[in-house]
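Progress narrative, Year 2. Work on Alpha/beta fold hydrolase from Steroidobacter gossypii advanced from sequence curation to structure prediction during this period.
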Amino acid sequence: MKLIQCASVAIVATLASALLAVAALADSKAATPCEIGSYRLAGGASLDIGPASPGQLRWRLEDGRTGALKTRANGRWVSTLGWTDRPDGHHVTFSDCDRGEIRFDNVPGRREALVQVDTRFQGSGVELAGRLTMPPGDARVPIVVLIHGAEHDSALETYSLQRQFASAGIGVFAYDKRGTGASGGRYTQNYLLLAADAIHAMHEARRLAGARAGRVGYQGGSQGGWVAPLAARIEPVDFVIVSFGLAVSPLQEDREAIEFDMQRAGFGPDIKAKAMEVADATARIIETNFNEGWDQLEAVKRKYGAEPWFKFVRGNITSYLLSGTPEQWRKDGPVLLDGVPAHYDPMPVLSNLDVPQLWILGGQDRDAPPFETLRRLTALRNNGRPITTAVFADADHGMYEFETLADGERVSTRQPDGYFQMMRDFIHGKQRASKYGSAEMSAAPGWPGAARPVD
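Result:
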């Protein structure tokens, strides 16, 4: 079961587990299951098969449906819905890998002959591992560079978009951010340094694609929403896509998340004001690199810990500070949040960015609530910035729809229909649908075909 997890400023794993995950991913390539790839089904649908938990695979369709595959007798894989443990009735069989054949619910398909080139390239003072995945043929195609969130995972091993976009006629450059996967250097959340690495990745993507490179731009999720626009401001590209990112600072993100916690739980302004005292304390801890603020946080816990609203405080980083010990966080926090610019203001960059942008946000995003971000993006668009926004009302962080369990936790079921298609069309620069699923869109003039902003 995969509960929706924050992939923004607050990395939720402990340092030990993060380091173990990095070591495992760096050594995993030789053991990559041969079934992983992009398949074209009879009738034209594209099906992605990617890695999942050990011994499992994950299937994804372009409409956002997904499930985990577990092997059964006679080579038949059976599926469970999203990240739940509930069977969804789907099943898959594979031929031997050399033949590249598949049957999804008895619909035959064949592996697509995507072209992949692995590379090592120089980032900003560090060597990074990357991969260009191209659709077959020699036609000129747009290129998208995928920018990490705050996760420690290897993008080369885990990012399904590198195959999904390529299957849709788009070249894709994925790379392991510094300190993750097969890349060198130390993990950091320094946005300027990560933006410099992204620019180097864009150069490497252009170099490898050669004459096939058309439009080139970035797609960044969560923390990538701070990094991608910054990279595009330093060196312009043709487009930027931000998925579940923010136009506020990391500390503002945490405060807005706590306010959203209180709103969802049905509490009013007086309780929100009390909850902000918790946010003030955790902000002080972050601002001082985990050295100060602990006494203030303990005092707030003593003051309000027994009140009914306190158990609903989640926030972003706050929930992890509340659940851990000061000793643990003094040791692990500076490494997990290394370089994070807590007061980073993205507005000067966004106010001066002429690159066309698509911002896709989740209306139920608990980790990165979109409300102030939408207000700011709307103001920028009305002032002439080329920004299109889209909100999927029922999506949480990571752009996942979900079910709510009896204990209040959420379990992801799928991504919204229209999410992938919208990104695909923005990268191609062509509107192919009058509506993208349930998305509420406000389009900048000129893309995708809108004559004026619609708010």
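The chain has 13 helices and 19 strands. Residues 115-249+344-442 form a domain with the Rossmann fold fold (CATH 3.40.50.1820).
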